[in-house]
Specification:
5 strands; 5-stranded parallel β-sheet; single chain; alpha/beta
Length: about 375
């Protein structure tokens, strides 16, 4: 991964390259941004450029270079009682990054079959990091440690590393990557130079989808408009489109039953049965369905406010009118509906019981759809 491989982020790439060329290399940096904005890709490009700046003739592969070290959340392997750290997953990690350079934490968990387990960076990992920090670099120059999703460090791990974030050995750079800056200890934040990733523009996403996914321009632009500047979200939307008809049927059944709940109390039982059915799809499909639903609600809002030119959604079921449905989605309830759906996605990502989350969301929806201005 080089700076040339990274989509957009031109200002940040220039800033980081100039720092290296001028010798202004912070000992600890914090790259902040959702996975789909490319913080990990940027960290790998930075590490490669830093080493190559010392040895211009050397060809750098960040995933294989002995002076670029990766640490990340892991789970115990099945039937293993021993302590597990990042080095035990290096083969899986390299395969994952080659396939998903903009992949998310949940993508990583899926790739290693984590199931309902949540990965962490433990105090045992901290000890491995300290050993790596103490080692001399293989090439005699800089050594770079990249800690992905640093917010997953346990308190014991973070405290053990504090001194090293403040005063690592010479020619050692530490890059922490996080989606949740505030989830890190304040003492760690204060020791790092923060670099914030920016969302990609619609045109950048469109061109990326055309180049890497072979999409035609119209389809790529439609996805880019919905991805909110996030490459990983764009890739997920492509997968989601393959399931659109199934999601559409689930959505229509959902909102119709939620409407009926005001006058038919038995609808609550139907919503519970609906929640159980959707929960059986599995975590990733549940999340994709909720993302699809969020998009339908937002499209309905645009229709309600007369912005038809911004509405890209097509409903195949002729018995359901998006235009009529839009009369029930306005400024009074869209914010709360969006918040509740995003909260449901958050909890499902963290392995909450899908049936319970969807039932709770459905009951809230029965009130929100009938909310008066």
């Amino acid at each position: 991964m080089t700076f040339e491989d990274i989509v957009g982020q031109d200002h940040l790439k220039s800033f980081l390259q100039n720092n290296i060329r001028s010798g202004r290399i912070p000992h600890a940096q914090l790259f902040v941004g959702k996975d789909g904005l490319g913080a990990l890709a940027m960290a790998m490009a930075y590490a490669s450029f830093l080493i190559q700046n010392e040895n211009p003739e050397q060809k750098i592969n960040a995933l294989q270079n002995p002076d670029i070290h990766f640490f990340f959340p892991v789970v115990k392997k099945e039937k293993s009682s021993s302590t597990v750290i990042s080095k035990d997953y290096l083969k899986e990690w390299r395969a994952f990054i080659k396939e998903h350079p903009y992949g998310s934490l949940s993508d990583w968990y899926n790739s290693i079959g984590a199931g309902n387990k949540q990965g962490v960076i433990t105090v045992d990992e901290a000890q491995a990091i300290i050993k790596t920090l103490a080692m001399k670099s293989f090439g005699g120059g800089n050594k770079i440690l990249i800690i992905w999703h640093a917010e997953k460090m346990t308190t014991a791990c973070a405290n053990k590393l504090l001194k090293w974030f403040e005063e690592p050995n010479q020619k050692t750079s530490i890059i922490l990557i996080t989606e949740q800056e505030d989830a890190l200890l304040k003492t760690i934040q204060s020791r790092c130079q923060a670099i914030h990733m920016h969302p990609f523009t619609e045109s950048q996403l469109t061109n990326t989808l055309i180049k890497y996914k072979g999409m035609d321009e119209v389809a790529a632009k439609r996805i880019a408009q919905r991805a909110e500047g996030n490459i990983n979200s764009a890739f997920k939307l492509i997968e989601q489109e393959e399931n659109t008809l199934e999601f559409e049927a689930f959505f229509i059944d959902w909102v119709r039953t939620a409407f009926q709940a005001k006058t038919n109390k038995k609808s609550i039982n139907k919503l519970m049965a609906w929640s159980e059915t959707v929960a059986k799809l599995g975590r990733e499909m549940e999340k994709q369905f909720l993302s699809y639903s969020l998009d339908v609600f937002r499209q309905a809002l645009m229709l309600n406010y007369g912005a038809k030119e911004l509405v890209h959604l097509k409903i195949s079921d002729k018995s359901f009118s998006l235009e009529k449905f839009s009369n029930f989605i306005d400024a009074q309830n869209i914010e709360k509906i969006s918040s509740e759906i995003e909260s449901a996605i958050y909890h499902i990502e963290r392995n909450a019981n899908g049936k319970i989350v969807l039932t709770d969301l459905s009951i809230k929806l029965t009130r929100l759809l009938h909310q008066k201005p």
